[in-house]
Amino acid sequence: MSTPLTHKEVSHTEGPWLIVQNGFTFTIGTEKTGNVKGNHDYTVATIEGSSYKDAANACLIYAAPDLLSACVAMLAKLDGMTSSEFANGGERAERIAMQAAVNKATGV
Length: 108
Prior knowledge:
It is a single chain. The chain is of the alpha+beta class. It has one domain. 44% of the residues lie in helices and 17% in strands. A three-stranded antiparallel sheet has the order 1-2-3, with helices on one face.
């Protein structure tokens, strides 16, 4: 069996995060105040640009807390799972969470 997953305590700004578009500027921040403009304490990132890649990058950053959470949950689930449990869909809830996080990151 593999070594159990270990990770540090969360040291980044906890999610969920919001994404706000104002013209060609995307601002990503927390929901603590609903205010993610300017130099607010809970602004995580600001992306300026008009290309589709700028919007895609903003979506990826916006989804980062969900992606991390889904990956940690899946690894923990898989670590303790037998091949029989896996064959019978024992990781289904974690798979759904991972798909939702990927959809959020890709703008689906």
